[in-house]
Amino acid sequence: MAGGAAGASHAERFLAMLAAERGAAANTLAAYRRDLVAAEEALGDLSAADGDSLATLGDAWSGLAASSLARRCSALRQFFGFLVDEGLRSDDPSASLPRPRTQRPLPRLLSHDEVERFLVTAEAEAAGERSDAVRLLTLLELLYGSGLRATELVSLPLAAVPRDAPFLHVTGKGGQQRMVPVSGRARAVLSRWLAVRRGNSKFLFPSSGESGHLTRVRLFQLLRGLAVRAGIDPTRVSPHVLRHAFATHLLEGGADLRVLQMLLGHADIATTQIYTHVDSARLVALVNARHPLAGA
C-alpha cells in the first residue's frame, strides 16, 4: 500500500485478521484493500490519521455514489476499531467519518408466470438431451429451485452433489458451509446433466477456462439469451434476480424467515428481510392471524 510503512503494515495485519478470524473471501479482502489504499492516497499514513483529517474525506470523495462512500467508511471504521483492539491506538477517530444515507435498492423481480416461461423454454430446448441445453436447464433449476448465489453455483464441486440425499453441500461467503435442499424436479435434471456431462473435472459445471469451471459472466450471458427466447426482457434478468425470485416466492408461500435465512446463507436475518422486501402490511396480517390474542 501507498503511505507510511507503519500504516501499510497495520493495514496488512488488519486484512490478515479479516481472513483468519472472519473468513473473509478473496474478493472481500481485495475490496477492503482498495478502500484503504484510496484513504491513504487522500490522507497519508492512516494509522496516524485524526478526526479532523477523516472529516475531510466527505469532500475528497464527493464524486462517489452514496453506496461506495458508505462502503469505504465502513472499511475505515473497522480498520480503526482493529487498531484500538490491538493496542496500536488509544483513540478511535472514525466517528468523524462522513455518514452517507443509503437506501438498499430492491432487486428486480420476476413473476411466477415469467419464471414458468423461463422453465418451459429451457425444458423444451433440453428435450433432445443436447449437453449445452441440459446444462442451462440445470443451472436454471438450481438458481430458482435452491436460491444459490451465482458464484456458489458455477463453482460447485462435483462432490457437492450427493447421490443418496436431496441436498447440496454449498460453500458460501466467508467459507461458510450450508446444506441446501434440492427439489425432486431439480434432482431429475441433475441426473440428466450428469449423464451428458463430459470430462473428468472436479467441478459440476466444467469449463476449459482458467478457473476450470463456468464463469459468472458466462452464466449471465446464458440466462439473458434464454430470456430473449422466452419472450422476457433480458435487461430484467440475472442470476441474482432468479435467487430473489426463489426467496420471494417461498416467502409468499408461507416460508419462515429463519428458514429462508438459512437457505440463502445470510449471516443476519435483517439481510433476509430486506432481500425479500417483506412489507409491514404482511407482517401485521401475520400477527393478526397467528397471535394467540389476535381474536381477543
What does this entry look like structurally?
The chain is mostly helical. Helices cover 56% and strands 3% of the residues. A two-stranded antiparallel ribbon has the order 1-2. Helix 2 crosses helix 5 and helix 7 packs antiparallel against helix 9. The longest helix is centred in the N-terminal third of the chain and has 20 residues. The termini are far apart. The relative contact order is 0.09.
Quick structural gist:
This protein is mainly alpha-helical and 296 residues long. Helix content is 56%, strand content 3%. Helix 7 (131-146) crosses helix 11.
List the helices and strands and how they pair.
Elements: H1 5-21, H2 26-43, H3 51-55, H4 57-60, H5 66-85, H6 112-125, H7 131-146, H8 150-154, E1 167-171, E2 177-181, H9 184-196, H10 216-229, H11 239-252, H12 257-264, H13 269-275, H14 280-290
Antiparallel strand pairs: 1-2
